[in-house]
Amino acid sequence: MATYVLTLLFLTAAGIAAAVSVTGWRRRHQAPGYGAMAVLGAGITQWAVVDAASMQFRDPGIVLALLGSAFIGVCAVVASWHCFSYTTIDRGWRLTRRHLTWLAIEPALCLLAVATNPWHHQFFAGAEPTGFDGAYVAIFGPLFWLHTTYCYVLLGIALTRVIRGWARGASRYRGYLIAVIISMPSAIFNAIGLSLHGKLIDLTVLGFAVSTPIMYVMMTRFSLPGLAPVAHERVFQKIGDAVVVVDAGGRVLNLNPAADRLLHSLLPEAPSSYVGATLRVLFGAETGIKLVLDADVDVDHTIQNVAGSGHDLEVRVSALQDRAGRSIGWALVARDITERSRQRRELERVNNQLREQLHTIELLRADLAEQAVRDHLTGLHNRRYLMNALAAAVQHASNAGTPLALALVDLDHFKRVNDEYGHAAGDAVLVELARTLSRALGDGEVVARHGGEEFVLLLPGATPAEAVARLDALRQTVRDNALIFGGATIVTTFSAGVTVYTGPESPATLLQAADDALYAAKQGGRDRVVLAAAALPAA
């Protein structure tokens, strides 16, 4: 009778473990723990079936052969228990090839010892009948005890790992711990009995069979797919941004606490619940109209002064679609950017102010630069500017092969004007001459005050004859237009020396040639224009 009861228990355990194994294998892609559970169930199934079969035979040789094959399941159970404990602590854990190799070493040696036992009898020393209807049990040798020690060490490590997880306060470890506690007594009792040379039926597999469904239930309850909806809901409730879900008709389906707080701060007189409300109610009529709900694209909106609240919102509208690609609504993620908008406006104001200041500074710099090359009395360019302009004009004439005329103008008897009419009158004469010379210039031509009562004209493109003619006309104009100053009529004349760039001359050489021609004009009686000797046409 005892044989039948034990056989029924072993087969029941095998059925339970097989069901867990098949279910775990089907769900192995959902979480790594299901794969370990499938191997664990398969190992228990094979172990329990072999134990049930061994109860039916009274031949020691057959019993030892059957019990030896049970160690395939035993090794699978221990290894999968070890792996399962890792998955309870770390849901991202995966069995690597290196880890698998280490786990396979001892089972391979164990099965080798079992297969070769008839020659060395170090794993099974023999078989003896028990008081359970004469059913046989194995008498174990030293290699078995080495294997058993390894198994219990590995199971102990797994148990320690689970207990540590439970001690850290994670409630999901309690179910695993219960499963471990249930599976341990039979294994411990069996180990103690064997060590005392008791002839006991090994019931360890029954303890594992009972614990396996508990482990599976806990695994299913706390698996990643099972936790996902809870995690999503918690994230939805805890996220700091306001999230509103609306249906295809634009009515609110759900919103998180952050959205509820934000909307009530914007619209204090809004309804207590927004579920079922339209966007116009949600954000105010004007803002609700501005929000674009497009079934195909995500749209970002920046809305200022929402419903006259003084708050600015940044709203991202994301389309929601079902598995068939049909639009089923939208998710609105809103963020209060009032402070950011204020900072942006302040930054823009400061930037505009800086740009205005930089523009003013640039104008002042340009004005200072211009003043540095201007004569403060006449407003003409000064000698510094003249020398740069002359060098550039000479370079251009040399490169282009075009003529360049230079005239040096000097007022006649200017000291007499200062002595007779005063320095103010002298300044007025200089200013009037500067105006006359400036009005006579064309594009690209330059007039500059060279110093004192001397002025220089640069006439690019002018031939010697043209330059002399223009200077002579200017001389006539100045003489014919007397200056009225302080009731006095001041008639002024000037003398001019003209030279023309012919190729090798430097700016200094041109100025010297014009100065020599001016000196000749002075010596010739003043009020005249003299062409430098170097510029005279060949006879």
UniProtKB/TrEMBL annotation:
Gene3D superfamilies: 3.30.70.270, PAS domain. One of its GO terms (cellular component) is plasma membrane. SMART domains: GGDEF. Residues 297-349 form the PAC domain. Residues 337-371 form a coiled coil. The chain crosses the membrane at residues 6-25, 32-50, 62-88, 100-119, 139-163, 175-194. One of its GO terms (molecular function) is diguanylate cyclase activity. GO terms for biological process: cell adhesion involved in single-species biofilm formation; negative regulation of bacterial-type flagellum-dependent cell motility. It comes from the Bacteria. Keywords: Coiled coil, Membrane, Transmembrane, Transmembrane helix. Residues 402-534 form the GGDEF domain. PANTHER family: DIGUANYLATE CYCLASE DGCM-RELATED, REGULATORY COMPONENTS OF SENSORY TRANSDUCTION SYSTEM. This is Diguanylate cyclase (GGDEF)-like protein. It comes from Actinoplanes digitatis.
